[in-house]
């Protein structure tokens, strides 16, 4: 019989990287850490995996505690296991990233954790290896957005092409050609043009579009090569 009593203790946590879009900018949700070490500094939302939880169940619980949300897009990113990543104990963290529409869920954020949205370019100093987690999540998001219409998870039910372009530019930290972008996105056949326009940002206004959800499920690869080479955009 294998004797596990001689093995060193290893704690397992989850951390959630939550990206949000407010119609103009791609942002990141952070909390103020409420305990030592690093009390008062900005942090990702996280927690320990409970004995009867899977990693995904733990991440779902943590996400709901902060945002009140369930059934949002969430994907496992990576296991961060550097022995010295946490000064208190040997703690491995399974990172997940999520995508939400800020305007739809802003009022559901828990006040308990003092959460705030930050522009990605203005993210404050973070605890431990949380910056590495965010950088890796953004790279993963860039890769997936180039081959799948995953970014629609960040958009409201109806949106304009300028808003969609702003979202892609935020993800890739790049300026995209307006005419070329519109042509490519409309060629996917995933968007349904609406009759009404958004006129708050210009007199002429931009038509609203909606995602054809049936085609979204059937043609999930319609954005293949939508961004030809994401790495060249930086």
UniProtKB/TrEMBL annotation:
Matching SUPFAM superfamilies, A to Z?
Nudix, Winged helix' DNA-binding domain
Q: Which residues form the Nudix hydrolase domain?
A: 9-141
Protein name, as recorded? DNA mismatch repair protein MutT
Q: Which InterPro entries match?
A: NUDIX_hydrolase-like_dom_sf (IPR015797), NUDIX_hydrolase_dom (IPR000086), WH-like_DNA-bd_sf (IPR036388), WH_DNA-bd_sf (IPR036390), WHD_NrtR (IPR054105)
Write down the superkingdom of origin: Bacteria
Question: What Pfam families does this protein map onto?
Answer: NUDIX, WHD_NrtR
What stretch or stretches form a coiled coil here?
none
């Amino acid at each position: 019989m294998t004797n596990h009593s001689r093995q060193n203790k290893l704690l397992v946590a989850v951390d959630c990287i939550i990206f949000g879009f407010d119609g103009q900018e791609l942002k990141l949700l952070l909390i103020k850490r409420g305990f030592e070490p690093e009390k008062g500094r900005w942090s990702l939302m996280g927690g320990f995996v409970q004995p009867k939880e899977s990693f995904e169940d733990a991440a779902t619980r943590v996400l709901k505690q902060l945002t009140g949300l369930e059934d949002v897009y969430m994907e496992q990113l990576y296991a961060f296991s550097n022995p010295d990543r946490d000064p208190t104990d040997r703690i491995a963290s399974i990172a997940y990233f999520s995508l939400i529409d800020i305007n739809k869920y802003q009022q559901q954020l828990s006040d308990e954790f003092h959460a705030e949205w930050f522009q990605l370019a203005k993210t404050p100093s973070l605890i431990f290896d949380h910056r590495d987690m965010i950088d890796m999540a953004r790279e993963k998001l860039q890769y997936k957005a180039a081959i799948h219409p995953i970014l629609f998870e960040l958009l409201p039910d109806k949106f304009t092409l300028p808003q969609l372009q702003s979202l892609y530019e935020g993800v890739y930290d790049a300026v995209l050609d307006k005419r070329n972008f519109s042509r490519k996105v409309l060629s996917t056949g995933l968007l349904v043009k609406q009759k009404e326009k958004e006129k708050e940002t210009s007199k002429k206004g931009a038509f609203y579009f909606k995602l054809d959800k049936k085609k979204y499920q059937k043609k999930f690869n319609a954005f293949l090569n939508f961004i030809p080479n994401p790495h060249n955009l930086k």
